[in-house]
């Protein structure tokens, strides 16, 4: 991937800048220079945003890269033109930003957008506008992620120098992100969780066994100390106990069933005798009820006679009701007829009165015609008054308009003057923006250095603490070694004495075996004139001497091992102390070069305190500057609004002047017209109001007459119509009364004849009383029917009971009940015994099953736990090798990186240096597996990377950075990155180291790569002819200037 052209609009400090990288085609190295905070690294941020839609560091969102000076009219956009594998690509991106609405007023948030154009041989072959498709296409073209792109293209030298001397744990964190080996870490966590769960299940199973055995109910014949036996013994005892308990349960069950059978037989007999007693009692009750019912016979005979009369009355009730209804309707019709007669008389009088009023109104018609004529004349004269009144109103409105325009014009003119003064004042304040921005950017850069230094100081303090703990262990080990040496000396003395006694005992045995004529085993003499005499000694066996010798040898071996361990710990302590001092010196040198420290401090605590103080001071100064910057930004925004307001005010003032002159002209025109109309006004009325008042009275008289005529006509018509309707109603009511009278006479004759026949009298009194009681007919009939049904039911029940009882007599149930109670008691006692033993046996059965199941589970799980434990230790690196699976994989990656890096380092150091992985395990896991040593050909041995000078560490870090980029490229399909950026790292180098670094960079020319150095070091500007100079312009803006020879 080779960049050709980069355009930035309102991105960071760049308002509208284009960087043409094709001007550096003839250069292998070019310099990007400028003041701190001017925007050098922003160029790389813009390239990363164009390719991936995000910044290089990832800690700033694309929308935050929008220029502070950009207004809402101009968008932020980045365009990158680059070549890759024979094709040309142009990507144009807009971040999420707030801009003016395209329609209407106000602003809105526009989401991120972009466009990717692809060219082949200068001909467009494709265009993509969807963000998702753009990102996928670029990722497919480049074959690397944003993080890998930043790692390959931007080489932050400070970070790689820190990577060189970092611990294995810190290197692992960095390499994990690059090579994405989090999977191995997740494997480790998963295996650890599996082991934990398996161990927990085993522990739970053991607890469950203990809990279940504690719940077992042991029988009396169990051993007294059964709970103190082991689990297997308790299971065996419990199994035997359960077999015995089940046999006893079986016998008890038979006895219980026998008792239940005796109880059921006695209960059946008891229930049979009880039921027969109930039948005998029911028979006696039914016979008594039959006698009671027969005694009520006379009462029900009278009730039958009453029912017969009610049935007759029920038959005649419809005609009786019809007669009463006709009688009631005739009374109502007579009342209505009287009301209609009265209404007809009233309507006839009203008709005569209305006819008389109609005649009077007809005589007033000439006067109405005269009023209509006058109205026409006066309405014709009204237009002149109306014209004069309208002109007065228009003149008044014109004067008001002239006064209002005069007021508005003066107000707008004053506002324009005030805004101009405010604009001049804000312009004066904004001269401070450049200085504040530069100071704030410098503080931000210093803060990054302080944070990095703080992390390094924390690590140095931790290393110092680790070394102190190591020294404490060395001191403790030395003390223990002295004690061990004393024990060795004591054991040696005891062993020597014991051996001497053993030898003396051997001499005594030999003396005892000497005989005349046999050779001495010492001197070979056949004569033994003076055999040795040894005093009595304690007996020492061969086993005693061997045991003492073994104890002495064990202590001597332990002494040698402890002495070796102490020597190694002392070497490690010295090495760690040297490394810490070297790292401390490098850090102090870097802080002095950054002007954070003025002189070499006495201790790590002093540097930490100075860094903490400077960090706090930096924070305070940044807060002050940020507040000032925010205030100035607010003033800047205010000035934008002021200028916008001034641009709107000036045309408004001119418009108001023109409107004011026009309003004055209209006022004069109305004054002339009003004077002309005044000479043509009639003399009868003083003004339009008096004329309108007279017209109003005249119109009221006209309307009153017309209304009176209309009302009279309507009333007369209504009266005639209602009179005709009333007369028709009168005729209808008379006819209705006549018909009702005829029907009533017929009904009265029929009812009277029937009453006379039924009761022997023509009086309707008995009929009227009986008709009122007809509603009781159904209830009375039901009572009679119920009485008959009861007689039949009682006779049937008595017959049934007589067939059941036959000749049975009452039985005394108390004696039978007492025997039954005794059988129940015996049965319940046996049931209680059985239930108790059954529950006990069932509980013990369940507990035994659970205990045996958990015991089997523990046995089955133990092998799995052992295998998991070994696997977890291997994957986590907690074994003797201290090398986990993930670090083992990263070790292979780092070996590959070092192989490629050594090719560069061999060239850059003229074959002197080569980097290798440290082969020995460290004292702790954190410094094992990824430690780097440097082979120095001048001395012919390995040495620590901490011993490299500034220039040496620079070329080593550069080689490592280049190699990492190449390995990532090869792992991503062999892509080509034709441009590299080296960001800073030069300011901390002395003159010799800087010369070495420049020579190293120049030696990379053979790789056909263009290298951009991002730095503010002056000497680089003198040695590198091709440059991109970033120049600050004030108000947070920067410009780009390209320098070529």
Automatic annotation (TrEMBL):
Q: Where is the composition biased (Low complexity)?
A: 356-371
Q: Which residues form a coiled coil?
A: 235-269, 388-415, 545-572
Q: Which is a GO BP term held by this UniProt record? A: double-strand break repair
Identify the keywords attached in UniProt to this record, alphabetized. Coiled coil, Exonuclease, Hydrolase, Nuclease
Q: A Pfam family matched by this chain, by name?
A: SbcC_Walker_B
Which residue intervals define the domain Rad50/SbcC-type AAA in the entry? 5-261
Provide the GO MF annotations for this entry. Answer: ATP hydrolysis activity; exonuclease activity
Q: Does the keyword Hydrolase apply?
A: yes
- Gene3D superfamilies assigned to the protein according to its UniProt record, in alphabetical order: P-loop containing nucleotide triphosphate hydrolases (3.40.50.300)
Biased region (Basic and acidic residues) positions are 614-638
Q: Tell me the segments the record calls region Disordered.
A: 346-376, 608-638
Superkingdom classification of source: Bacteria
**Subunit text:** Heterodimer of SbcC and SbcD.
In the record, the note on similarity to other proteins reads: Belongs to the SMC family. SbcC subfamily.
List the protein's name.
Nuclease SbcCD subunit C
């Amino acid at each position: 991937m080779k960049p050709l052209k980069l355009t930035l609009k309102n991105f960071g400090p760049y308002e509208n800048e284009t960087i043409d990288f094709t001007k550096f085609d003839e250069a292998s190295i070019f310099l990007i220079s400028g003041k701190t905070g001017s925007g050098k690294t922003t160029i790389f941020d813009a390239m990363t945003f164009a390719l991936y839609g995000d910044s290089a560091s990832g800690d700033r969102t694309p929308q935050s890269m929008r220029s502070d000076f950009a207004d809402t009219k101009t968008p932020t956009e980045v365009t990158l033109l680059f070549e890759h594998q024979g094709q040309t690509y142009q990507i144009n991106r807009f971040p999420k930003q707030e801009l003016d609405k395209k329609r209407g007023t106000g602003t809105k948030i526009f989401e991120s957008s972009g466009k990717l154009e692809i060219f082949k041989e200068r001909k467009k072959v494709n265009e993509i506008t969807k963000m998702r498709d753009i990102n996928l296409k670029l990722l497919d073209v480049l074959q690397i992620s944003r993080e890998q792109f930043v790692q390959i293209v931007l080489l932050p030298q400070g970070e790689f120098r820190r990577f060189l001397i970092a611990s294995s744990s810190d290197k692992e964190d960095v390499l994990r992100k690059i090579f994405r080996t989090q999977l191995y870490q997740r494997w480790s966590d998963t295996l650890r969780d599996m082991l934990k769960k398996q161990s927990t299940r085993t522990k739970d199973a053991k607890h469950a066994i203990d809990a279940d055995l504690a719940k077992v109910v042991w029988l009396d014949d169990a051993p007294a100390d059964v709970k103190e036996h082991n689990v297997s013994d308790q299971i065996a005892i419990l199994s035997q106990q359960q077999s015995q308990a089940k046999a006893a349960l079986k016998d008890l069950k038979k006895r219980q069933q026998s008792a239940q059978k005796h109880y059921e037989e006695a209960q059946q007999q008891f229930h049979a005798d009880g039921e027969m007693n109930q039948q005998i009692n029911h028979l006696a009750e039914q016979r008594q009820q039959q006698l009671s019912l027969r005694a009520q016979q006379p009462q029900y005979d009278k009730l039958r006679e009453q029912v017969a009369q009610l049935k007759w009355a029920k038959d005649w009730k419809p005609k009786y009701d019809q007669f009463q209804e006709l009688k009631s309707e005739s009374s109502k019709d007579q009342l209505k007829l009287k009301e209609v007669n009265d209404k007809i008389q009233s309507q006839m009088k009203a008709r005569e009165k209305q006819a008389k009023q109609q005649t009077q109104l007809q005589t007033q018609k000439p006067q109405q015609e005269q009023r209509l004529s006058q109205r026409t004349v006066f309405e014709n004269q009204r237009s002149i008054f109306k014209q004069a009144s309208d002109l007065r109103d228009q003149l008044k409105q014109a004067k008001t308009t002239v006064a209002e325009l005069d007021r508005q014009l003066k107000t707008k003119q004053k506002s324009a003057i005030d805004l101009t003064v405010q604009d001049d004042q804000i312009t004066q304040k904004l001269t401070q923006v450049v200085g504040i921005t530069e100071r704030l950017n410098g503080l931000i850069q210093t803060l990054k250095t302080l944070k990095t230094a703080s992390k390094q100081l924390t690590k140095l303090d931790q290393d110092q603490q680790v070394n102190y703990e190591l020294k404490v262990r060395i001191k403790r080990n030395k003390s223990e070694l002295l004690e061990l040496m004393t024990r060795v000396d004591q054991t040696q003395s005891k062993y020597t004495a014991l051996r001497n006694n053993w030898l003396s005992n051997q001499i005594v045995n030999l003396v005892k075996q000497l005989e005349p004529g046999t050779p001495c085993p010492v001197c070979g003499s056949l004569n033994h004139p003076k055999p040795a005499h040894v005093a009595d000694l304690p007996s020492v066996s061969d086993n005693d001497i061997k045991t003492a010798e073994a104890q002495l040898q064990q202590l001597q071996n332990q002494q040698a091992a402890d002495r070796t361990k102490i020597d190694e710990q002392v070497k490690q302590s010295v090495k760690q102390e040297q490394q810490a001092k070297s790292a401390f010196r490098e850090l102090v040198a870097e802080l002095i070069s950054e002007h954070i420290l003025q002189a070499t401090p006495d201790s790590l605590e002093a540097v930490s305190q100075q860094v903490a103080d400077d960090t706090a001071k930096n924070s305070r100064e940044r807060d002050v500057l940020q507040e000032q910057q925010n205030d100035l930004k607010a003033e800047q925004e205010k000035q934008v609004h002021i200028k916008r307001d001034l641009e709107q005010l000036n045309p408004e003032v001119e418009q108001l002047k023109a409107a004011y002159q026009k309003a004055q002209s209209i006022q004069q025109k109305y004054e002339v017209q009003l004077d002309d109309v005044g000479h043509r006004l009639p003399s009868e009325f003083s003004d339009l109001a008096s004329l309108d008042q007279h017209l109003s009275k005249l119109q009221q008289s006209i309307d009153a007459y017309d209304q009176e005529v209309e009302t009279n006509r309507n009333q007369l018509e209504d009266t005639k119509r209602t009179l005709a309707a009333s007369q028709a109603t009168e005729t209808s009511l008379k006819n209705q009364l006549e018909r009702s009278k005829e029907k009533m006479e017929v009904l009265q004759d029929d009812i009277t004849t029937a009453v006379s026949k039924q009761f022997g009298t023509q009086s309707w009194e008995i009929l009227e009383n009986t008709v009122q009681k007809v509603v009781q007919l159904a209830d009375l009939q039901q009572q009679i029917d119920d009485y008959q049904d009861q007689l039949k039911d009682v006779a049937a029940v008595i017959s049934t009971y007589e067939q059941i009882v036959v000749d049975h007599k009452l039985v005394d149930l108390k004696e039978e009940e007492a025997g039954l109670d005794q059988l129940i008691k015996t049965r319940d006692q046996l049931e209680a015994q059985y239930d108790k033993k059954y529950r006990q046996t069932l509980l013990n059965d369940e507990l035994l099953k659970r205990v045996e199941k958990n015991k089997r589970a523990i046995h089955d799980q133990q092998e799995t736990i052992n295998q998991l434990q070994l696997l977890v230790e291997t994957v986590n690196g907690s074994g003797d090798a201290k090398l986990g699976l993930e670090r083992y994989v990263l070790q292979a990656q780092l070996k590959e990186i070092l192989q490629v890096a050594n090719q560069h380092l061999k060239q850059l150091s003229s074959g002197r240096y080569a980097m290798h992985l440290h082969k020995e395990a460290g004292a702790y896991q954190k410094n094992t597996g990824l430690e780097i040593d440097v082979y120095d050909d001048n001395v012919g041995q390995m040495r620590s990377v901490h011993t490299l000078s500034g220039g040496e560490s620079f070329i080593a870090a550069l080689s490592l950075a280049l190699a990492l980029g190449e390995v990532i490229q090869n792992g991503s399909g062999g892509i080509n990155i034709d441009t590299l950026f080296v960001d800073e790292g030069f300011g901390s180098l002395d003159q010799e180291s800087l010369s070495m670094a420049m020579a190293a960079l120049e030696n990379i020319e053979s790789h056909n790569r263009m290298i951009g150095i991002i730095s503010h070091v002056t000497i680089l500007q003198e040695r590198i002819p091709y440059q991109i100079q970033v120049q600050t312009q004030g108000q947070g803006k920067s410009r780009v200037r390209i320098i070529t020879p």
